[in-house]
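During the no-cost extension, the postdoctoral fellow (Dr. R.K.) reprocessed legacy sequence entries with the updated structure-token encoder. One reprocessed record is reproduced below for audit purposes.
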Amino acid sequence: MVGTLINVATVVAGSDAGLLVGRRLPERTRQTVLHGLGLMTMVIGMSMALQTQNPLRMLAALLLGGAIGEALGLEERLQRKGSSPRGSSHKRSIAWKTGSPDAPR
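Re-encoded structure tokens follow.
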């Protein structure tokens, strides 16, 4: 339980730090960092997959997790959550930077 709480705290802290620092970085730099993180995530996942003693259990977990996620509509819920107030302020910020008519006055 303590490990889960520490994980949650570090994810929240990392997300907050990313939001604060990310806004100050050029788009190209943000994309490069995002690609690097994605690549590292793939490397870690592949490393763990190659160490598993029972690949069928891993396959079953992926299939079951995907089916449950689809049945519960998790992706759509996350998309809605992402486009809620924080998402709309991000859109306003982009509109302001681009001079769009949607920009706040």
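The mean pLDDT is 84. The first helix runs from residue 2 to 22. The remaining legacy entries will be reprocessed before the final report is submitted.
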